[in-house]
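A brief tutorial aside. Many learners find it easier to grasp structure tokens once they have seen a single protein encoded end to end. The record that follows does exactly this for Nudix hydrolase domain-containing protein. Read the sequence first, then the structure, and try to relate runs of similar tokens to stretches of the chain.
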Amino acid sequence: MLKEKTYYETKASEADYLAWYKTQDWQTYDKPAMTVDNIIFAFDPTDRQLKLLLIERKAHPFKDKFALIGGFVDPSESAKQAALRETAEETGVKITDDNQMWQIGAFTDPNRDPRQWIISVAHATFLSPFVAAHAGDDAKDARWFAVSKDETGAIVFLSSDLTIGLDDLAFDHKDIILATFKRIKESLDVTPDILHVLGDEFTSTDALAVLKCFDSKFEHYSTGNFVKTYVKNNPILMDTGRFEENPNKPGRPKKMLRLRK
């Protein structure tokens, strides 16, 4: 057997090796199933808050628990394609620009899913414009939650009648969200991609509303200091030279900013 293995690995053609491998070795390895999870952020213009999209699970496991959007990867698709499909099926949200989606990483704890050994590839989506969500497929509910913090500083998600803490979520979605928030926070002073939720142009007020969800230091910035820091001193943002168009809003119109390309 050892001589046969050595022959196919080192002497035979790749086609012959693969044909042999599928009959000899393929069945000897335990194989995990693969899923995707999608952490979808968007900025709601009606109340000017950053929001996260969650679904309420219709079936076991974690029936009636809120969770990230996700599901199993089909053999014919990539992880990103699966995330796009699952998002549309479960929430009705169609992400037409997949450049809005970033891969966060693989979550591989063998006990993360009670059904079997399942690896999840997590993505973060910075969606713009904001759209309504509607439950479908195996989701009982799909809704946007405002990203906030409780009195201890812990991340919570708020809707009109419900508060969801990280420990209330299904599977290891607490770990996925914490990893995503950490990744976003670490990038804020270099490439604050989360600001894509605001569209191509945005005001300093809206930028601060988003950024403070990930780093409390932004709670202490005035809009003037923010512009001075991130447009002039550490120019990761650009002044477009335009002002917001909202004649019914009191006070001076705010400058429109954009991410520096």
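Self-check: The chain has two domains: 34-185, 194-259. If you spotted this yourself, you are ready for the next section.
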